[in-house]
Task: structure prediction
Amino acid sequence: MRDFSDILGEVRGKIAAACNRAGRDPGEVEIVAVTKTHGADAVREAWEAGIPIVGENKVQEAAWKKPASVTGPSWHLIGHLQSNKVRHALELFDFIHSVDSVKLADRINAISDDAGFSPHILLEINVSGEKSKSGMRPEDAEDAARHIIEECPRITLEGLMTMAPFSENPEDSRPCFRRLRELRDTLEQKLGAGLPRLSMGMSGDYEVAVEEGATWVRLGTVLFGERPKIRAVRAVPGDYDGCALAGLDSYSGAGPTVRILD
Result:
């Protein structure tokens, strides 16, 4: 098994090369280490290797993993946020990448005002138009951003996020990433506000995303390997690495993962 620091060095080298091709400073790009279905050990490994940002898809997974993990990383919610989990999300995460409606932004602002939070967010944009993906339509982004800036004083809007359609060819993602960058640039001009963050690109297409302007790339598999198969979840004290079980594949994120070991 390869050493994590070697893997990270290779990834950072590819990011630097992509920046060079695009005439960018590699310091503009940060890695979000996505630890979905991995245990608290993955958080510690990333932190000790020099990655200060952890990304989680589910509020309920961060709820058990964060207390079990090393202190230090900044926690980012990158998955869909349900309105009934907003308060819990604000307690756990420093940054929310996935605000996909004005209604959700208003709820985040109201709860933040009540509880004293000052959240930083991105608007999630469904650039591809896929029905299976969350995110608002690109044509709705201006009104949503303007509303947040003018009507949601507790929130700091810092940019945009998207997910490209899955493809074996990373180049297929380029139009999606380019359109998000162009949308961001247009919004900055129309709103007179800086939106410096672009969260786009994952393990299969992050080099293209960097070439197109990504400032955060969300990387899981390329850093930690394939996600473990999940039999179930259960709340257990102590060892969060799971155990060998077989049976149904299911995953809710609600507690420490129980893995199927092949």
The two ends are 16 Å apart (CA to CA).
